[in-house]
Amino acid sequence: MTARTLLRSSATLLLALSLAQITSPATPATAATALSADPVGLNAPYEYLGWGSPQTPTDVMAASGVKQLTLAFMLSDGGCNPKWDGTRALAGGSDQSAINSIRAAGGDVVVSFGGWSGNKLGEKCSSAGALAGAYQKVIDAYRLKAIDIDIENTEVASATVRQRVVSALKTVKANNAGLKVYVTFGTTPTGPDSDGADLVKRGAATGTAVDGWTIMPFDFGSHSGSMGSVTTKAADGLKSVVAGAYGYDSATAYRHIGISSMNGHTDEADESVSTGDFTTMFNYATTHHLARFTFWAVNRDRQCGSGESAGDTCSGITQSSYAFSKIIAKYHG
User: Can you name the residues that pair with 110 across neighbouring β-strands?
Assistant: First the structure.
């Protein structure tokens, strides 16, 4: 019996229903609505389902409180055709099953294109139009509300490809109302390097409305201070680049940038990101209302076992399981 029927039947019964709603747990429909309240991608840590004994996504959600995941990586199959890791089809496989299960549990996903290794669509697609079509194929396959372009290595190093990517994203934005677009790239301790800065400037000059220009503040080569403090300095540098390129004031620029950190030991011997560093980043993101706060990767968000070292399955530091994911889950912009 619906509340509307009760209203017609009896004021007393309506009061009883109201009291029951206050004191009883939320229904599945209500819970799903609550879990989807944040913009998709705002607080979605990466999980790479093809790497490092990945955890079951719904187990991650249940244990950490995370309701969104950024699933990596969408690559080229050798041409301008998207496949998971360049090999797994979009439809009917384990990746689609994982996305379905995340959504059935009240969550949602971002699909990340690119990464460091493999064939990149930005390089393999010969034009901005073809690249936009490849992105669109994935958006349509999963009814996506957000995508992430993780542009690294040879893809970001080419001015031609940088322009192709931002031009393709302009088309994708125009053709998909409400779609969130994040662009993720490396950084120096003081902000984007020349390739990253050029990418942002090309985006602005092209008229590409990126929701969150996002730096990966690790693997610096060298740095001074804690990883938390150097991350905030790098993010300030990104803010200045975005503000200058788009003509934003500082507050608006902060709302169009993001941080994608790495938990535990990174690839550099002198870098280790602790939960304390993560809390520094969280407080910075909250103060400035960043568009995105995430990290690489859920696969590593657990302590190493005996004989293991930091890598694709663990962080290399003393931590509780999902300690970093639990901090991310608390970020709401």
Answer: 70
The stretch 288-299 carries a mean pLDDT of 98
E strand spans, 160-247: 180-186, 212-216
Residue 68 DSSP code: E
pLDDT digits (tens, 9 = 90+) for 9-29: 333 333 333 333 333 333 333
227-to-52, 183, 265, 280, 296 alpha-carbon distances in Å: 24, 22, 11, 9, 15
Asked if residues 165 and 150 have their Cβ atoms less than 8 Å apart, the reply is no
Interatomic CA distance for residues 235 and 331, integer angstroms? 17
268 flagged as catalytic: no
C-alpha distances (whole Å) from 184 to each of 103, 116, 213 are 24, 11, 6
Number of H helices and number of E strands within the chain? 14, 11
The 8-class DSSP code of residue 79 comes to S
Q: How far apart are CA 215 and CA 219, in angstroms?
A: 12
260: CB partners within 8 A, 6+ apart: 46, 184, 214, 215, 216, 217, 292, 294, 295, 296
Residue 36 pLDDT level (bands cut at 50, 70, 90): low
Mean pLDDT value of segment 292-312: 96
Of 47, 152, 268, 308, which residue is the catalytic one?
152
Smallest CA-to-CA distance from 195 within 204, 186, 183 is with: 186
| The model's pTM | 0.89
Question: Within a 10 A sphere around the Cβ of 198, how many other Cβ atoms?
Answer: 17
